Amino acid sequence: MSIPTFGAGTFRLQGQVVIDSVRNALELGYRAIDTAQIYGNEAEVGQAIAESGVPRSELFITTKIWVDNYADDKLVPSLQESLDKLRLDAVDLTLIHWPALGKGVSVEAAVTTLARARQQGLTHLIGVSNFNIADTGLAIGAVGKDAIATNQIELSPYLQNRTLVAWLREQRIPVTSYMTLAYGKVLSDPVIMEIASGHQATPAQVALAWALQLGYAVIPSSTRRENLASNLKAQAMRLSADDMARIASLERNGREVSPAGLAPQWD
User: Fold this and answer.
1) Please, are residues 68 and 99 in contact by the beta-carbon 8 Å criterion?
2) Is 224 helix (H, G, I), strand (E, B) or coil?
3) CA-to-CA dists, residue 111 to 108, 227, 245, angstroms
4) Which helix (H) or strand (E) holds 103?
5) Is 39 a catalytic residue?
6) Helix or strand run (H / E) with residue 81
7) Cα dihedral sign for 198, 199, 201, 205?
8) pLDDT (tens digit, 9 = 90+) per residue, 135-145?
């Protein structure tokens, strides 16, 4: 099993809003849906999936273990609770959401317990999220790099994370990009807008195509059906070498997500 390169995220979407977003995404052809325990929307995501009529075999569902559930006696029960909310027997991918060393559970212990959950059939793949090089190295030491299906990290034209990405490529660990549009900030960037105009595309399509062309999986979210449909078209775009170079020049360490007490020392 491999990770789909294009999916729908659900971060910050709640209640009927997330039900509608997931329903629209599935109707439009999305088959990968990303959620997390801390998002507080697993039950609504599960409802939308159940009501969609899409066969389970066609779907790829990801959730993430929250930091309060890393302990040996909490992780598996919390994942079972997530499965109940999602109305699934197993998810396709489960991630350790943050390294969160201050929570008293080591990276090695958390990842090892997650690997046990996989052995129990609760998740098909496991991985990490928001891990730097050092923490990913600890995870590799615990379960082996072949067991880590992805590191889901913040990546956008404004935060290109080149050091971490280069290292993950050396380890052959796939990268999933979240916040690829930088909370929408890149959509009004003059360079992105000019490239979009040249391709008769939207700025969002350009940013997503940039990430896809670099080999990342992407999980953009939207509450609007037309934007979900438009984003899908990024898969068919091909940016030129000049386009990619111009976007590369936009790097500004523009990190949007770095919660105190959870985030590692970034590379």
Assistant:
1) no
2) coil
3) 5, 35, 37
4) none
5) yes
6) helix 75-86
7) negative
8) 999 999 999 99
Phi, psi (degrees; rounded to nearest 5) at 43: -65, -40
Average pLDDT over residues 36-48: 98
Task: Write out the two tokens for 117.
Answer: 């959950």
Phi and psi dihedrals of 28, rounded to 5? -80, -10
Q: What is the DSSP-derived secondary structure letter of residue 149?
A: E
Q: State the Cα–Cα distance between residues 64 and 258, nearest whole angstrom.
A: 17
For residue 260, give every residue at least 6 positions away whose Cβ sits within 8 Å of its Cβ, in sequence order, or none: none
Q: For residues 220 and 243, give the distance between their C-alpha atoms in angstroms, rounded to a whole number.
A: 21
| Alpha carbons 248 and 211: distance in angstroms, whole number | 11
- The DSSP secondary-structure symbol of 215 reads T
Looking at residue 46, its amino acid is G
Could you read off the pLDDT of 89-140 as tens digits, one per residue?
A: 999 999 999 998 778 899 999 999 999 999 999 999 999 999 999 999 999 9
Among the listed residues 39, 158, 178, 216, the single catalytic one is 39
DSSP of 195-245: HHHHHT--HHHHHHHHHHHTT-EE----S-HHHHHHHHGGGG----HHHHH
Q: Which domains does the chain have, with CATH numbers?
A: 8-182 (3.20.20.100)
Report how far residue 123's alpha carbon sits from residue 86's, in angstroms, rounded to the nearest whole number.
Answer: 13
